[in-house]
Design a protein that fits this description.
This protein has 309 residues and is an alpha/beta fold. The chain is built from six helices and 19 strands.
Length: 309
């Protein structure tokens, strides 16, 4: 069984930041990622609210973080999924789809995945007009009509990106105003993105690909079938904590990991950071900050320096 000073689960901004700080502190550091590094940041068309960059694409920011993490000695194992944890005791066991590891400290930074509409046609037409990633699939919809569903920053960024690649974009939101930052709303107006307020998608239709969506106006009760070529779903996230609760780590009713101000979970030696935690603001900047605290606390837990309490 391979032994590490610390194992970080997840290689998004939180996991990579934790890897930087753990590696700099001299810990033998392993970062496990079930997909490719970057998480949701890796598919963001651009980022404009991360300090130090007026604008940077998600893939470019992730590449910088990965390089920085590896510079300080952290090993990043991509395409290696954690299937179970035994976090009790001093030697905690992490089992993946490839092997088993032991470590005295774990940081969980598994992030979230896109929430689904759960309406008829969504699963059938995934990859055939239904998408959760504007940057991945947007170029296929040049000169075509698409709907973006959502009201937060992710929905606004996706709508702006799709308009930029030449799609005819309508942003559909179940309320009468967006949750997105005001700067994004100004951008959408400049990009001639249309808005459909107080509306929800009830069904996605088509033969081999998406041809239309059925939309319900939750104020008037009216149902309309709109002809569209694509539907981009951006309605929030669900935490990636499938293995966490089984390991005895406390989560709230939505599945987010409960942590204190020092990013400690209810299990000694297990920390969590980033979008997977109960902290209310889900941004790259907050994920980075939480990861710095988690890595610093994990170093203290393992090495017990004079200042650690």
């Amino acid at each position: 069984m391979e032994s590490w000073d610390i194992i970080i689960i997840g290689a998004g901004p939180a996991g990579l930041t934790a890897g930087i700080y753990a590696g700099r502190s001299g810990m033998k550091t392993l970062v496990l990622e079930e997909k490719m590094s970057g998480g949701e940041t890796a598919i963001a068309p651009w980022i404009e609210n991360y300090p130090g960059f007026d604008s940077i694409s998600g893939p470019d920011l992730v590449m910088k973080m990965v390089t920085h993490c590896q510079k300080f000695g952290a090993q990043i194992n991509e395409l290696e999924k954690v299937v179970s944890l035994d976090p009790k005791g001093q030697k905690k066991v992490v089992k993946t789809n490839k092997t088993t590891y032991s470590t005295p400290a774990i940081i969980i930074a598994t992030g979230t995945h896109h929430r689904r509409l759960n309406v008829p046609g969504e699963e059938r037409f995934q990859g055939k007009g239904v998408s959760y990633c504007a940057m991945c699939d947007g170029p296929f919809f040049k000169s075509k009509k698409v709907i973006v569903v959502g009201g937060g920053n992710s929905a606004a960024i996706s709508a702006r990106y799709l308009s930029g690649v030449g799609a005819e974009v309508e942003l559909l939101h179940r309320r009468s105003q967006l949750r997105a930052e005001a700067a994004y709303l100004d951008d959408l107006k400049r990009e001639n993105v249309k808005f459909r307020w107080n509306s929800e998608v009830k069904e996605i239709k088509g033969e081999t690909i998406v041809n239309s969506v059925v939309v319900h106006n939750n104020k008037t009760g009216e149902l309309n079938e709109l002809n569209v070529d694509g539907l981009f779903v951006q309605i929030g996230e669900t935490p990636n904590t499938q293995f966490v609760e089984k390991a005895g780590i406390e989560v709230d009713k939505k599945g987010y990991i409960v942590v204190d101000t020092r990013q400690r979970t209810n299990v000694p030696g297990v920390f969590a950071a980033g979008d997977v935690t109960v902290k209310p603001v889900k941004q790259i900047g907050t994920a980075v900050g939480e990861a710095i605290i988690a890595a610093t606390e994990a170093f203290g837990y393992v090495n017990r320096p004079y200042y650690y309490k």
